Amino acid sequence: MRRRAGVGAIQKHRVTQEKYQAKRAELEEGQVEELSRQLETFRARLQEFATRHRNDIRRDATFRRQFQEMCAAIGVDPLASGKGFWSELLGVGDYYYELAVRVVEACLAAAPRTGGLMPLDELRRRLARAAGPGQPELSQDDLLRAIGKLKVLGTGFQVVRLAGDRHLVQSVPGELSGDQTTVLERAQAQGGHVTASELGWTPARAERALDQLVQDELAWVDEQTGGEVEYWFPSLFPALNNGEG
Amino acid sequence: MHEMFSRLKETMSREEWVKTGSFSAGTSGDKRGYRAGIVGIEKKLVAEQQQQNRSISEAFRDLTNLMEAAREMVALSRQISTKITEKQGGISEDETVRFQSQLLSLGVDDPVTRGTHGSGDRYHAELARQLATMLEAPARQAGGMLTLTDAYCRVNRARGLELISPEDLLSAGRQMTRLALPLRLHELPSGVRLLQLAELDQDAVAESTRRLLAERGTLTAQQLAALAGVSVLLAKQRLLYLETKGGACRDESIQGLVFYPNRFLEEAQAD
Prior knowledge:
Chain B: It is found in: Cytoplasm; Endosome. The complex is a heterodimer. Chain A is built from nine helices and six strands.
C-alpha cells in the first residue's frame, strides 16, 4: 500500500505535533510549578534559620564570609537583588548595600584630599570611626564585596591590588596602568613619596607614568627638594591614615 | 623623729602594696568570696563564648543543609532556563514571568532575568516607576542628571530598610526608556552611567556646552562644573562628548586638561 500522503496526512501530522507541543508545555509548566513548590518550602526553612541565626550573621564576619563562599559554590549571588530571599529573610542584603553607601560617602568626602585613591585599611578605619563604638567588626572581605557591587553603578569604584595583599580603593574612573600601579607600590613602601630615578626606568617611561598621576591629581610635585624632583601621594600618607576627617 | 624614720623604713621594706589578693582587711572568708567573684565572672565569659561558638557551628550546620536544597533548585532553574532560551512557545508568558520572579528570589544570574526576554521582569519595572518619581526632583536640582552612584545612595538612605542592590538599580534603570518615564538611563562609552531627565538629550546639552565654551574661550572640567552646576565628573563627560562631536579641542598638559572651541572647524565653515 502506498504511504499516506495528501492533506489528510498533513493534518494528522499537525495534530500530532500540537499534542506533542502541548505535552512538552505541560512538562515545562510542571517544572516551573515544581520549582515554585521547592521555593516555598525553602523559604519556610530559611525563615526558620533566620529567626535562629540572624544575629550571628550580623555579628560574625567569618560566618558571613563562609556564607558568601557557599553561595558562590552553588552558583547563587545572595547580593544580586534586594528582592532575593537571602537578602529579604537573612538581612544580608541590607548589611552590604548599606555598607556600600557608607563606602561611597567616605570616599567622596575624602576625595578632595586623596584624589580618589585610598588604602583599604584607611577606609576601614574611617568607617569604623564613623560608625562609633559597639559596632560589630568590619572585615576586609566585607568591604571588598561591597565595593565589588559598586562597580555595577559605573562611576569608577574599584579595588586596585598591590603586591603583598595590600589594596587601594579607587573612587574615580580611569584605569591605573601597570606602571602607575608600580609607582604607587614603590611610594607606599617609602612613606608616600618617590623620585623618578628610584623607579629604575628610562626617563621617558618614568615621566609618562608620573606625569599622568599628577594630571589625575593623585600626585603632588615637590621641586624644592634641592635635589631631584619628588612626587608625593597624599592618599598614601601615613600621617593622614591616623588623622581624622 | 628617729622612731618615725625607722617605722617608715620598716613599712617600706615590707612593701605591703605589692601583696595581692588582700583587698579586704578581713577574714579568709572574705578572701574566698572575692576570688569566687572574679572566677565567677571568668566562668560566665567562657560559657558565653562557648554558647556563641555552639550557636555558630549549629548555624553552620543548618546552613550547609540549606545550601544543599538551594543547589537542587539552582539545577532545576537551569533546566527550565535552557528550555526557554532554546525555543519559543513551549512555555507561556505567565510562566516566564513567574520564573523570572523565582530566579530573582534565588539570586541566580540568568539572561531571562536580565530582561533580554520579553519585557523584563515585573519587580524591576515597578521599581523603575518608584525611582523615577523619587529621583526626578533631585535630578532637576542637580542640573538634569544624577550619576547612578549618587542615585543609589539617595534611594537607600531614604529607604533605611529593605534596600535595593546596585544591580536592582541598573535593571530598573534599563526599563525606564521602555516605560516612557521622565528619567532615563544613559550608559556612556566611558562606562559612566547616569539617570538623566528625558527632556535633556545629549545634543541639547552639547549645544549649551559649546556656547559656554565660545563665551569663555577656554574651559576646564572644574570651571564648567561651577558654571553649569553639575559635578566635575559630569562636566568632564560633557566636554568629552562635545569633543567627539567636533565642537571642542583639547590641550592636554601636566597642568591638566583644558578645552578650546574648535577653530579648525569653525574657520573652515566660515570660508
